[in-house]
Amino acid sequence: MPWKKLIYLFLLFVVVGAATLFGATVGGLVVYRFVSKQQANLQPASTQPPIAVLPASNNTQNLVVNTTDVETAITSAVQNVGPAVLTVVSTVPGQQTYFGYTGDATSSGSGVFISSDGYILTNNHVIEDAQKIQVIFSDGSQQDATLVGTDQYSDLAVLKITGSVPAVANLGNSDALNPGETVIAIGSPLGDFKNTVTVGVVSATGRSIDTGSGYSIDGLIQTDAAINQGNSGGPLVNLAGQVIAINTLIIRNSGSGTVAEGLGFAIPINTARVISQQIIQKGYVSRPYLGINWQPITPRVAAIYHLPVQYGVYITDIDSNSPASQAGLQVGDIITGIDNTSLDETHAYINTLFQYSAGDTVSLTLMRNDRQTEVQVTLGDSGS
């Protein structure tokens, strides 16, 4: 090949190589500047605040739940009240039946010391018909107790021991309770698991439960804290370590076959305080007294016996020298109202009567021989 062609080819390669190198360099710079510019556009300027997802407000409140604080409060409350809680064991004498003597029976519940003088608050149904009562302290020691008095209508009873008291519970204010507030139940479920602690909330206040005996227990506190047989008479405690109610009953079955859970009820401590003070001072609870034995009338009873009213009480007996006998009431009379309150499914006779006090004069609406009449009665004292 002639040397001129060689020189020409060499120069051609040099020019092509230089052009390629120059294009790559310029292209790289262009790409770098483009990417850098896009990244710069994506990043907020350092001088501007970030965009808020929600509008700012001076009234915004942060909800902070510290479970450690709640657990500490529960532990502290149990330590304060626990030593004042005890197990109540009642011995009910046996009975002679057609099949022979049944033998003595025992039942158990719970209670709580409310005084350094040895007074114990529990349920009436825990010690009802008991011949002997024993209490078992939280440390396992036992002692006999005596019955001071009871009130079946509030299902409360007061016991007393002699000697030293291990601890006295601090009573709170049940009127200040609100649904959702954490509460603690302490007692002896089944009589064996002494000083068991369960935790729940106040489900509702002001509940009314029909006892099936012609009256209801009103103003109860509903809770979902686990309450079982044997917890009756034990305290329901708030996080401040104060007794705010006395556990009294549970509902497991609605009567229609529906099974329920977490339906416990307790007597407000404000009610229990008034009842227990009367029992300690008088040995009984002063309630208005009419002096009759009676049977409740419901639509079903009225239909069976062809009675002229759907609700009321049928007088089956009258105490001698009672307010009822002095006012001229008769066996067979049907009381259908007291003053301006008619007896019905929401106004039981006993609960309506207990709205009054001993010494009050009330007007009774009666059905006598299928005719309505009014009788004025001055109520007596149940303890007199």
Would you mind describing this structure in some detail?
The protein has helices spanning 3-42, 67-81, 124-127, 269-282, 299-305, 323-326, 349-353, and strands at 85-92, 96-97, 100-101, 105-113, 119-122, 132-136, 142-151, 156-160, 170-171, 182-187, 196-210, 216-223, 235-238, 242-250, 264-268, 288-289, 292-297, 312-318, 334-338, 341-342, 361-368, 371-378, 380-381. By secondary structure, it is α+β, with helices and mostly antiparallel strands. It has 4 domains: 1-38; 67-160, Trypsin-like serine proteases (Thrombin, subunit H, Beta Barrel), CATH 2.40.10.10; 171-282, Thrombin, subunit H (Beta Barrel); 288-381, PDZ domain (Pdz3 Domain, Roll), CATH 2.30.42.10. The strands form 5 sheets. Strands 1-4-5-8-7-6 form a 6-stranded antiparallel beta barrel. A hairpin with a 2-residue loop joins strand 21 (361-368) and strand 22 (371-378). The N and C termini lie far apart (147 Å).
